[in-house]
């Protein structure tokens, strides 16, 4: 779909990171921009910056995990701009709490925002787009949607976004409907995602603590993210994909290679591989050693140190 002046884009998670960069990129192409985010103050600030680019804007505080809120977003968007042409279901969060031994609330939060947010966005805006006969969805997944290895709830939510997007793409094509679909699968991007807990919803109770030992991975991920590509580069990839009607949006060949290696292993019937080098992260052996030594300190026992030795040698 051509990104031309006068069309309208809705971006969720638009107050920060990739979402803000998408809003900025579409504004520079002259589109009207609807910014949706749960964080009110950041949303107002973001709208101010986008409006300063000389386009029409609308900011709607939205919790994408809430179907009624997404419906209200669509109603406000059509009331203001008539048609909606481009919807970026981008809002997302991550949790480093313990997926198996920690509270279930972290799963509900991550799946609520990352997976249900995308489902609500598609179900709500598809009829709106069909009513005026043109549209394009960009759903933000992650490389974690093709290569598990982040956290279980995040990986699961992003695998769901890839599957949902691919299904939507097929149904639109098979039915001959004028709706494009792209799925964004970035590697590390320099955003505020590691501080996602700032938006932990009070109605899910207390925010679960970080998993034991998680701070090792979290420290390395923060560093990888700080040194990663800028959101504006990702937004440029997205704009090109929308204009070209391309489905897959990746942010670097090294990430595609990681996914391809996984799939070659699957095709060969291999069990999931440990020791795979993830771009931007230290070697797996180093990570494992760091985690074991942290656990040994936290647990404070000879037993933890003792049990780590044979494993790290193996
Ligand atoms: N940064 C990365 O390395 C990376 C990599 C792959 C995928 N992603 C994905 O990119 C997307 C954007 O994240 P980002 O990296 O820009 O992080 P970010 O934290 O900078 O931005 C996320 C935005 O989503 C908003 N948000 C959170 N919960 C919400 C809710 N319930 N309803 C509406 N808005 C909500 C936040 O307020 C924030 O403005 C996410 O889906 C994330 O999973 C990020």
Write structural notes for this entry.
By secondary structure, this protein is α/β, with parallel strands linked by helices. It has two domains: 260 residues, NAD(P)-binding Rossmann-like Domain (Rossmann fold, 3-Layer(aba) Sandwich), CATH 3.40.50.720; 30 residues, no CATH class. Helix content is 51%, strand content 11%. Strands 3-2-1-4-5-6-7 form a seven-stranded parallel beta sheet, sandwiched between helices. Helix 2 links the parallel strand 2 and strand 3. Helix 4 packs parallel to helix 5 and helix 6 packs across helix 9. The longest helix has 28 residues. The C terminus is likely disordered. Nicotinamide-adenine-dinucleotide binds next to helix 1 and helix 4. The site of nicotinamide-adenine-dinucleotide has 32 residues, from helix 1 and helix 4.
Radius of gyration: 21 Å
Count of separate DSSP helical elements: 10
Strand residue content: 5-15%
Please tell me what the overall shape is.
Answer: globular
CATH class of the largest domain: Alpha Beta
Number of strands: 7
List bound small molecules.
nicotinamide-adenine-dinucleotide
Let me know the largest β-sheet: 7 strands, parallel
Order of helices and strands: EHEHEHEHEHEHHEHHH
């Amino acid at each position: 779909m051509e990104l031309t002046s006068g069309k309208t884009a809705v971006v969720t998670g638009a107050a920060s990171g990739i979402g803000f960069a998408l809003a900025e990129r579409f504004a520079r192409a002259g589109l009207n921009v609807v910014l949706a985010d749960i964080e009110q103050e950041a949303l107002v600030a973001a709208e101010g910056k986008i409006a300063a680019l000389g386009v029409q804007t609308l900011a709607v505080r939205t919790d994408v995990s809430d179907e009624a809120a997404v419906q209200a977003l669509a109603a406000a968007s059509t009331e203001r701009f008539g048609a909606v042409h481009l919807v970026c279901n981008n809002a997302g969060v991550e949790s480093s709490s313990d997926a198996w031994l920690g509270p279930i609330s972290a799963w509900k939060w991550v799946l609520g925002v990352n997976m249900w947010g995308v489902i609500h966005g598609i179900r709500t805006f598809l009829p709106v787009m069909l009513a005026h006969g043109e549209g394009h969805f960009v759903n933000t997944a992650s490389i974690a949607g093709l290569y598990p290895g982040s956290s279980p709830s995040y990986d699961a939510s992003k695998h769901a976004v890839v599957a949902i997007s691919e299904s939507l793409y097929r149904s639109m094509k098979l039915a001959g409907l004028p709706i494009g679909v792209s799925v964004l699968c970035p590697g590390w991007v320099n955003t505020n995602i590691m501080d996602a807990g700032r938006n932990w919803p009070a109605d899910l109770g207390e925010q679960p603590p970080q998993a034991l030992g998680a701070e090792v991975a979290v420290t390395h991920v923060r560093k990888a993210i700080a040194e990663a590509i800028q959101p504006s580069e990702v937004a440029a990839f997205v704009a090109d994909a929308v204009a070209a009607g391309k489905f897959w949006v990746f942010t670097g060949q090294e990430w595609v290679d990681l996914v391809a290696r996984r799939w070659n292993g699957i095709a060969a019937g291999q069990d999931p591989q440990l020791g795979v080098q993830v771009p931007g992260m230290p070697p797996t052996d180093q990570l494992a050693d760091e985690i074991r030594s942290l656990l040994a300190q936290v647990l404070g026992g000879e037993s933890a140190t003792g049990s780590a030795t044979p494993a790290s040698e193996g």
